[in-house]
Structure formats: structure tokens, C-alpha cells
Write a structure and sequence with these properties.
This protein is 52% helix and 3% strand. It has 127 residues and is mainly alpha-helical. The protein has a two-stranded antiparallel sheet with strand order 1-2. α1 packs antiparallel against α3 and α1 packs across α4. The radius of gyration is 14 Å and the shape is globular. The structure holds zinc ion. The site of zinc ion has 6 residues, from α3.
């Protein structure tokens, strides 16, 4: 998997971006907790403090850490403003392995939230 080059300003995000960040962090967090038994470490991201946005630490296995790092980086690099619905976007963020993985994560965690009554989170899932 390719390393992503960073060319982002640190610490300046809109509420919309924070909202999207929170969503993807939650989805990957649930998926990892429910599916992976390996060793998990607190997720950290060099562009911002995850605790500031999510209000708590998020523990992920190495694979999910890679996926989330990729997802967040791509979200913050989105060249569109306002960001279109991902489905309709001409600049697809996720490719190859990442694409099938994030789909699986969204599907699993989406269902998990329905079962646990977190329908409010689905607003994000369905966008
Ligand atoms: Zn995991």
C-alpha cells in the first residue's frame, strides 16, 4: 500500500469536516472492536488530536489504523467544496483494497447501529 503524502495545514477544520471525521472514526472503531481480536493501540493522527474531536481514545488494530489513517487523509484532501455525496463524487477517495474494506466497515457498522438504536448515525451512512 502506498504512503500518502501530506500537504495539509494542521488544526484548521470546519465543523463539517469534524463531523465527517467523527463519523468515520466511529464506524471504523465499532468494526474493529466487534471483528478483530488482535492487539489494539490508541489511534493517533498527525494532523489533529483525535481526543479533541471524539472526546475519548479510539483503540484500533494495525489494519484498522491504516484504513482510518487513509480515510481521514483522503477526506481532508477532498478537492471539492462543498463535498458532494461520496457515491456521486468524480474523485473517488478509496481505491482497491481500501475501497472494499471501507465498504465492509460501513455496512457492518451501519447494521450495528441500527441494531443498537443509533439511527441518528445513519444519516451519515446514507449520504
Ligand atoms: Zn481492526
Amino acid at each position: 500500500m502506498k504512503e500518502i503524502r501530506m500537504s495539509l495545514k494542521k488544526g484548521e477544520f470546519s465543523e463539517k469536516e469534524k463531523d465527517d471525521i467523527r463519523t468515520v472514526v466511529k464506524f471504523v472503531g465499532i468494526y474493529c472492536r466487534e471483528n478483530h481480536n488482535g492487539e489494539r493501540t490508541p489511534f493517533s493522527f498527525k494532523l489533529f488530536d483525535i481526543k479533541e474531536i471524539e472526546k475519548k481514545e479510539v483503540f484500533l488494530c494495525p489494519d484498522c489504523t491504516r484504513l482510518l489513517t487513509y480515510g481521514l487523509t483522503m477526506r481532508l484532501k477532498c478537492p471539492h467544496d462543498p463535498k458532494p455525496m461520496c457515491k456521486k463524487c468524480e474523485t473517488q477517495c478509496y481505491h482497491g483494497d481500501y475501497k472494499s474494506k471501507i465498504r465492509e466497515v460501513m455496512k457492518f457498522s451501519g447494521m450495528y447501529m441500527v441494531k443498537h438504536g443509533r439511527v441518528d448515525m445513519l444519516y451519515h451512512y446514507l449520504r
